[in-house]
Amino acid sequence: MSNPAEKPEVVQLPAEPVSAPSASSRRAAAQRVREARDKLTSTSGTRPAFDAEMLRQYAQTRLSASYVVMLLVVATGVLFGLWMQPIPAALWTAGMLCIHGAMVRSCRRFLTEPASPAATRAWRTRFVVLDLLYGLCWMAILIHPVLDMVTETLMMFLMLLVIAVSSMLAANLPIAALAATAPVAVAMALSFAMTGSLDNYILAALAIAAEGYFVLLAHRLHSSTFATLEARAEKDALIGELEQAKAISDEARHRAESANVAKSRFLAQMSHELRTPLNAILGFSEVMKSEIFGAHAVPVYKEYSADIHNSGVHLLNLINEILDLSRIEAGRYELNEEAVSLVGIVADCHHLMKLRASSRGITIHEVFEQAMPRLWADERAIRQVVLNLLSNSIKFTPQGGEIWLKAGWTASGGQYLSVKDTGSGIPEDEIPVVLASFGQGSNSIKSAEQGAGLGLPIAKNLIDLHGGTFTLKSKLRIGTEVIVTFPPERVMSALAPLSDDSPPLQPEGSAVPDEKRRPRHKPIMSAGTGS
């Protein structure tokens, strides 16, 4: 007996995370929904705003061509009055003029009234009815039995003229154009076809073909006008979005400027408020640490005083770094430029940090090029940059590591400074983080000696103020190297001494020369004349 089939194991796949749509996609979806709703509520399949604009252009076209249509009606009435009795022709002319007057009056009223969806639909129906009456009146005169003696060619010409004028005038409202031209074309085609001759059959086919051509032409004109309206609407929407974005950006800029001013005022005030008690803490803690007024009864108090003094020094340095960074970011940091020696500054900083490096078993090597000219720079800023870089290298280099200090020429004629260590390194994706204000890498967070994350940003900004470059290269478990370069314009090359003596200011022999003894034909000074 066979075993029953085992049930297949159903493994539920992990659901893929659904990413949140972006702001642009949400705006595009909202716009598509709005356009679909507008098309569903419109009578012509377009936006209600476009319907009103189309009717407005239709009314303006009708008003601009009102005198042309009036002249055509009067001329046709006079011409037909020669072939038929004057009274029927006059009645037809009066009826046409009444319909035309009602059309003109309706167009003027439409242009003066405010647009609304309900009013637009009502005016659209009214215009279609008036155009239908206009076409029926033309049909009545063209198929009048009295006009049988008129040649078919003349009737065909008049029909084409009426259809062409009506199609062009009502192109912005295709249904009205069809209502004005279809009765005329269909009636003339039937009139030609009822005669039974081949020529009239051809004329009937031409009448239907002409009607189709002018209907297609009116549709093309309507499509081009609609495309123009869409382009204008998109342009207006884009201009509106740009103005809104500009207003938002201006407001954000004003808020940022206000926040920057408030931050500067706060830092300036807090600097004074913090330094005043901090100086007292540093002074009294140093007195207690040094046991100036006598030894402590409990030796531990001396260690506590040293800890208080060291913490106060650290807090004071942090305040100074924050103030320097705020001045640099606000553009109010002024360089006190003078002729300085880059090698001398680096050597002094090495001497200051040598004891700290020796306590950690770190060896610092110096590689300096000799006889380098001075730089035109801010000595305090350069010294701060070197101390920050060297302090970071000592902090993140393990015991027994090595640090190289280099200073020399660049390929373009400038000078450079390099600080390279054998520390733990920085991941490549964290380099922008450590160069940002208050940014710290993963190794810095794990380290026992955490800082505020201001050393590298301050150093980079100070070098940028000098017009130089700040390059940070690092590899994990290999080390980090920071290269700082100064442009050739800041290198003060030595000037060569003058080879020729300057000409004397006065002639030798007397302080005031005798003009009577001086020859008239020789110049006063002969420098550069070759004599």
UniProtKB/TrEMBL annotation:
Q: Which SMART domains does this one have?
A: HATPase_c, HisKA
Q: Which InterPro entries match?
A: HATPase_C_sf (IPR036890), HATPase_dom (IPR003594), His_kinase_dom (IPR005467), HisK_dim/P_dom (IPR003661), HisK_dim/P_sf (IPR036097), Sensor_HK_Regulatory (IPR050736), Sig_transdc_His_kin-like_C (IPR004358)
Any GO MF annotation of the entry: phosphorelay sensor kinase activity
Name the enzyme's class.
transferase
- Write the signal peptide boundaries: none
Bilayer-crossing regions? 64-83, 89-107, 127-147, 153-170
Histidine kinase domain mapped to chain residues: 269-490
Q: Which UniProt keywords apply?
A: Kinase, Membrane, Phosphoprotein, Transferase, Transmembrane, Transmembrane helix, Two-component regulatory system
Q: Where is the composition biased (Low complexity)?
A: 15-31
| Region Disordered, residue ranges | 1-45, 495-531
Provide the protein name.
histidine kinase
Which classification does the entry list for the species?
Bacteria, Pseudomonadati, Pseudomonadota, Alphaproteobacteria, Hyphomicrobiales
